[in-house]
Amino acid sequence: MSYIKILCLLLVLCLLFVSCSPAQAPDATTPSKCADGHIDEGNDGFCDRCSEFLLVMVDFYALNDIHGKLADADTHLGLDELSTYLENARNTDDHAIFLNAGDMWQGASESNLTHGRIMVDWMNEMGFAAMAIGNHEYDWGEAPIEENAQFAQFPFLAINIYDRETNQQVSYCKSSTVVDLGQLQIGIIGAVGDCYSSISSDKVTDVYFKTGSELTQLVKHESDMLREAGADFIVYVLHDGLGSNKTGSVSDSMLKSYYDVALSDGYVDLVFEGHTHRKYVITDSYGVYHLQGGGDNEGISHVEVAINIATGKPSVQTAELVEPRIYAHEEDHPIVSELLDKYADSVDKGNEILGTNNYNRNSKYMQQLVADLYYQAGEEIWGDEYDIALGGGFISIRDPGYLAAGDVSYKMLYSLFPFDNQLVLCSIKGKDLLDRFYNTTNNRYFISYGEYGRYLEQNIEYDETYYVVVDSYSSLYGPNKLTEIERYDAEVYARDLLAQYAKDGGFQNY
Ligand SMILES: [Zn+2]
Ligand SMILES: [Zn+2]
User: Fold this and answer.
1) What is the 40 CA–ligand 1 centroid distance (Å)?
2) How do the domains of the chain map onto residue ranges?
């Protein structure tokens, strides 16, 4: 064979080799062709030496503020279609990571009656990577969070929840977690926003939240540690967010109330938010995306990021809200009915039909009725001993905001008044009674009173002590200046008074 022929053969062999090695996305099991690492000076996604495709796609799907809505109801979608959507995503995407930005448990009876356990079970089954703690996770105090943390196969994240006594982070939360994708490490940091005061204070006596610059420092420090340990991309899951629906780039001053944009200067690469139940896909001045999916199963925040394993540079390919109309037509995933069966002993109480309601009762009607029932219950329990001036307080109604005509189930009442706030007999000075209850301009305050209370309205003596019956949320709210005297049964809440009212045929009246 001539020298020229040998050269030609070599050339053909070379060409064959190149054409048989198409650029392909590597996965965790493909060993790198460049033993000493790839180089991609131009960041074009291909190795300058071996031409290997260097971009790894990671898809994040985040939920926020689901508020226990696992099962379908007349007023909202359950998670059965959403589960199928997420499972399909897991099967199609190279790397799908499921996250949760908090307020997962409180709000629908199937979750409340299990203290959130059924939702944690659902997240275990779906393979969630982490959940940030929301303010409503504290609605039953710390114990259920601790128990659910034991049961969860993923970490609860809150870098800023501290124990008052030890001044250490609470044991049931971690600051961060790492999802190991082989060639890539994804760091996830979680925090709860400045929403401590929205929790009934008797539920958070042992903890405090670090906020503002303290929170910024904690996140920066955690991010540094994660990066040092090899994290290529850092996601911040924050139970707090923007107060309005927005799209596009926003000014940093819009984020100021809950997010320090200094974190976007290299500390966090993507932010999933919650708490305000808004829908947005926005970018801050550093180009970092912030998303929130509306809450109550009104959307999924989805971000696809391509990360270059040679340069470490991420680029967001997609940032979108997946609206319910996209997933509502999916098949029902069996997981939801399986979980409802599994927890039937607890959940069935919610399905009990208590009575009939003759017409739709709006929010004002229901809130006033709760105030009336507080007053009546107070008269029955303490009326012999105390001259009770009035019952009521700050009465907040939840989904769907009215009681529909027809059968009344415990579940419906649970959804309207989900909070475990006890009835409390309190004393109050005349001046405060007048300011906080009779003359309040807060339209969420509802009061009810009998003859004595009506008489008092015109004849209050500022320094005299009076007696009122409110729930423990109102009694503990400092500005009300109430002094607790006695609490009633720990198992009786607004919804239970309403349940008895329904059983007595109350909702059949006009
Ligand atoms: Zn919420
Ligand atoms: Zn919240």
Assistant:
1) 44
2) 55-344, 352-508
Please report which ligand is nearest the Cα atom of 278: 1
| pTM, full prediction | 0.81
Residue 221 in tokens = 């420090």
Q: Do domains 55-344 and 352-508 have the same CATH topology?
A: no
DSSP assignment of 396-427: ---TTSSBPSEEEEHHHHHHHS-----EEEEE
Mean pLDDT calculated for residue range 67-89: 93
What tokens does 299 get? 């959307």
Which fold does the domain 352-508 belong to in CATH? 5'-nucleotidase;  domain 2 (3.90.780)
Q: Give residue 192 CA to ligand 2 midpoint distance, Å.
A: 8
pLDDT of residue 403 exceeding 90, the answer is: yes
Kindly report the CATH class assigned to 55-344: alpha beta
Rounded to 5 degrees, what are φ and ψ at 208? -140, 160
Cα 455 to its chain centre, rounded Å, is 45
Closest by Cα among 210, 254, 101, 58 to 221: 210
Pairing of strands 279-283, 289-293: antiparallel
Residue 295 CA, ligand 1 centroid: distance in Å:
7
Whole-Å CA distances, 510 to 358, 392, 405, 416, 506: 7, 22, 12, 20, 9
Cα 166 to averaged position of ligand 2 atoms, centre (Å): 26
* Ligand 1 center–CA 285 separation, angstroms: 27
Mean pLDDT of the residues in the chain: 92
- For residue range 127-145, what is the model confidence (pLDDT) as tens digits? 999 999 999 999 999 999 9
Q: For 111-126, how does the pLDDT look when each residue is reduced to its tens digit (9 = 90+)?
A: 999 999 999 999 999 9
> CA 218, CA 201: separation in Å to the nearest integer?
25
